[in-house]
Amino acid sequence: MSNKKIGRPIATNPKNIRLDIRITKEELAILDSYCERKKVKRPQGLRDGIQALKNL
Q1: Is 30 exposed, middle or buried (0-12, 13-18, 19+ CB in 10 A)?
Q2: Cα dihedral 29→31→33→39 (10° resolution)
Q3: Confidence bin at 6 (pLDDT 50/70/90)
Q4: Rounded distance between C-alpha atoms, residue 31 and residue 41, angstroms
């Protein structure tokens, strides 16, 4: 029997921090519009926005 673990490989940069926020309907509409155009889900849309802040 092998000692190799079964399951998903360990991520190099795990997304293990949970962030809960409150936003307005207008902000949600902006996020949803972005996600629809880029064909991404909301969490990825938020990550894209955070990465955009790095370039300011």
Answers
A1: middle
A2: -150
A3: confident
A4: 10
Q: What is the pLDDT of residues 9-29, one digit of tens each?
A: 888 988 899 999 999 999 999
Residue 21, H or E segment: none
For residue 34, with 0-12 CB atoms within 10 Å meaning exposed, 13-18 middle and 19 or more buried, which class applies? Answer: middle
Alpha carbons 37 and 29: distance in angstroms, whole number: 12
What CA–CA distance (Å, rounded) separates 53 from 31?
15
Question: CB neighbours (10 Å) of residue 31?
Answer: 15
